[in-house]
């Protein structure tokens, strides 16, 4: 008699466990679906509802090099200083930094296109400049590791060598980007080496 009760209890526990797992899956799917919902903006263009998260997840993350590759001479290295990894987004005449989860860390003016209210910036509602950076707390400076988007053009599909050349040349074209000022609250610098 007790064996039958125990067998029934096991099946009840398994059924309840399956129900809980299904509820968790459904809750997760609902959360994912609401996260991926699309907002319709005033100008009629469709954009993801959480752009900051989408951009932050397109950042590259470093890996340990356990063995020296045979073609090390053709590699490009990016010096990654100690600091907070973030995504810098210049849009709508303001600049903000977000972490890898899309949470806003800081808002400030910068000299990047669409980054502050100065006459040489081109105001546009949907265009933006997005950079993968590290913020050094000690030096109060941003180090640019990679480019994600520049003036509304995505660069994530281009090879690394081109992206590094492009971001270095674009930063060199912006006078005062490596200095602190009222229109550029934090200096920005690129450190890329050919090995």
UniProtKB/TrEMBL annotation:
SUPFAM superfamilies in the cross-refs: DNA ligase/mRNA capping enzyme, catalytic domain (SSF56091)
A Pfam family this chain is assigned to: SPN1_m3Gcap_bd
InterPro entries xref list: Snurportin-1, Snurportin1_C
An MF annotation (GO) of this entry: RNA binding
Region forming the signal peptide: none
Localization in the cell: Cytoplasm; Nucleus
Sorted UniProt keywords: Cytoplasm, Nucleus, RNA-binding, Transport
Main location per the UniProt record: cytoplasm
Residue intervals of the Snurportin-1 m3G cap-binding domain: 59-188
Family classification: Belongs to the snurportin family.
Role summary: Functions as an U snRNP-specific nuclear import adapter. Involved in the trimethylguanosine (m3G)-cap-dependent nuclear import of U snRNPs. Binds specifically to the terminal m3G-cap U snRNAs.
Name this polypeptide is given: Snurportin-1
Gene giving rise to this polypeptide: SNUPN_1
